[in-house]
């Protein structure tokens, strides 16, 4: 049997030891686990950015993978600690909508609240549930503990209120919902949205009233320093600046309006 896979996504960064501490807890419970870092550079407390990270990555892991995600501004408060199963994979972390985009892949969702004391550390800190609740739960799932042993079922999951692209009079109207390390602006416009337009005469993309032209096939299709639009690897339209940062060059970020129309 293949070793279980646990991915880790946090806003902890790598300066402090906290990611390593979580890994130590996991390996103490499930020594055979394979640990994969997705990102530890999520903007602090930014659940939507964490959700975009999981959306881009989760579907490329084999069935049975456990995704441990801790972007948790509500740690120690009333938000629930959860473990979930959806689309053949498991997710462990706070009930704050981190998995909202991953669930768009479809299928039923099973969820439990992490209340069983035997599957957490003996002492639970109010400030480090990643170590004391979430890492142990992920490790026990990887060791074969059934999901329903971790606590009672939950049906009222918190979901992020995600903006969606709208179709209005032959236009697609969307907005920027995130950026990446390169300063590319990630939008709510998806491949499915673009496919709904008659593109026989070509398409034009505008962001905050700035015309960036038709979507291109490669970043190199734009002139150096020029803005362009491209369908990114996660299936979302991106606004980029070749060999630069669209976020800095255009001075735009989350919430900036995006329009796609026929040429």
Question: Any chance you could write out the topology, listing elements then pairs?
Answer:
Blueprint: E1 5-10, H1 18-29, E2 34-39, H2 47-57, E3 66-70, E4 81-86, E5 89-94, E6 109-113, H3 129-142, E7 166-168, E8 171-179, E9 185-190, H4 191-195, E10 203-207, E11 210-213, E12 215-216, E13 227-231, E14 236-241, H5 246-250, E15 257-262
Parallel strand pairs: 1-2, 1-3, 3-5, 12-13
Antiparallel strand pairs: 4-5, 4-6, 7-8, 8-9, 8-15, 9-14, 10-11, 10-15, 13-14
Helix pairs in contact: 1-3
What can you tell me about this protein's structure?
This protein has 263 residues and is of the alpha+beta class. It folds into two domains: 5-149, S-adenosyl-l-methionine hydroxide adenosyltransferase, N-terminal (Rossmann fold, 3-Layer(aba) Sandwich), CATH 3.40.50; 166-262, Bacterial fluorinating enzyme like (Elongation Factor Tu (Ef-tu), domain 3, Beta Barrel), CATH 2.40.30. Helices cover 18% and strands 30% of the residues. The chain is built from five helices and 15 strands. It has helices at residues 18-29, 47-57, 129-142, 191-195, 246-250; strands spanning 5-10, 34-39, 66-70, 81-86, 89-94, 109-113, 166-168, 171-179, 185-190, 203-207, 210-213, 215-216, 227-231, 236-241, 257-262. Strands 7, 8, 9, 10, 11, 12, 13, 14 and 15 form a nine-stranded mixed β-sheet that branches. Strand 4 (81-86) and strand 5 (89-94) form a beta hairpin. The longest helix has 14 residues, at 129-142. It is elongated, with a radius of gyration of 20 Å. The model has no long low-confidence stretch (mean pLDDT 93).
């Amino acid at each position: 049997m293949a070793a279980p896979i646990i991915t880790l996504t946090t806003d902890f960064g790598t300066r402090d030891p906290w990611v390593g501490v979580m890994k130590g807890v996991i390996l103490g419970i499930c020594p055979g686990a394979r640990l994969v870092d997705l990102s530890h550079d999520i903007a602090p407390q930014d659940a939507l950015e964490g959700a975009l990270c999981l959306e881009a990555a989760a579907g490329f892991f084999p069935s049975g993978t456990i995704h441990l995600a801790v972007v948790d501004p509500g740690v120690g408060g009333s938000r629930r600690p959860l473990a979930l199963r959806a689309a053949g994979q498991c997710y462990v972390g706070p009930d704050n909508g981190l998995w909202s985009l991953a669930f768009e892949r479809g299928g039923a969702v099973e969820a439990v609240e992490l209340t069983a004391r035997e599957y957490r550390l003996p002492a639970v800190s109010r400030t480090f549930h990643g170590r004391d609740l979430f890492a142990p739960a992920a490790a026990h799932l990887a060791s074969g503990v059934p999901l329903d042993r971790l606590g009672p079922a939950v049906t009222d999951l918190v979901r992020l209120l995600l903006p969606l692209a709208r179709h209005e009079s032959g236009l697609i109207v969307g907005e920027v919902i995130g950026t990446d390390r390169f300063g590319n602006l990630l939008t709510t416009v998806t491949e499915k949205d673009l496919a709904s337009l008659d593109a026989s005469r070509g398409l034009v993309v505008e962001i905050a009233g700035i015309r960036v032209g038709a979507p291109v096939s490669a970043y190199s299709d734009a002139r150096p320093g020029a803005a362009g639009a491209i369908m990114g690897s996660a299936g979302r339209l991106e606004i980029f600046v070749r060999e630069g940062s669209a976020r800095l060059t255009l001075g735009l970020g989350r919430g900036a309006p995006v329009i796609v129309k026929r040429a």
